[in-house]
Amino acid sequence: MRKSDRVNASETSSTGFENRKWVRDVAFLVTGIGIGSGVALLLAPSSGEEVRYAIGRSCRKTVKNIGRHTEDLRERAEDFLEHAQDLRDLGSKLFHLRRGEALRREA
Question: What is residue 96's predicted lDDT score, i.e. its pLDDT?
Answer without folding.
Answer: 76
